[in-house]
Amino acid sequence: MKSFFVLASLAACALAQRMHIQAPTPGQTVTGNGTLTVELEQDQSLGPLRQTSVLIAMNNCFDVCDQPDQWSPGIILYNGDFNPQFNASAPQKGHYQDFVLQLPGFQPGPAVIQVAHQYAGGGATLTNVFDYATVQVTVQ
Ligand SMILES: *[C@@H]1O[C@H](CO)[C@@H](O)[C@H](O)[C@H]1NC(C)=O
Ligand SMILES: *[C@@H]1O[C@H](CO)[C@@H](O)[C@H](O)[C@H]1NC(C)=O
Asked: What is the structure's pLDDT at 31?
């Protein structure tokens, strides 16, 4: 029983370190050849955490948006450092980073933005871990 609680609290700790897509919001309309601001927020952890990198990709998903295994490969919009910062002018946002990305010209219709995140976290020793998030938007 005791080990169950230890495992549960470790899992909760790992969950609390996730990255979240704060912008765009689900259903937001974006211009297929315009610029798009993607805002990523990093939960603060009690333990140590070392950022590695983040990859942001986007693809039209049309009638298979709810079937990720049918999605065509995403076009990579950013692949590089992730350095979320606390902004004293916007404390409610926590630790976040904005990426202003030029879109190459997506077709009008539904599209999905996928974000893959690598970092090192954990307790006494850091473990390389990964998390992932998506948000669906509408290209106009
Ligand atoms: C974006 O696409 C629209 C419609 O095709 C076009 O009118 C506009 O000039 C394009 N803008 C850029 C920055 O390419
Ligand atoms: C901090 O937040 C303010 C208000 O939202 C914003 O104007 C400013 O650009 C932000 N600073 C950074 C470094 O993101």
From this structure: 97
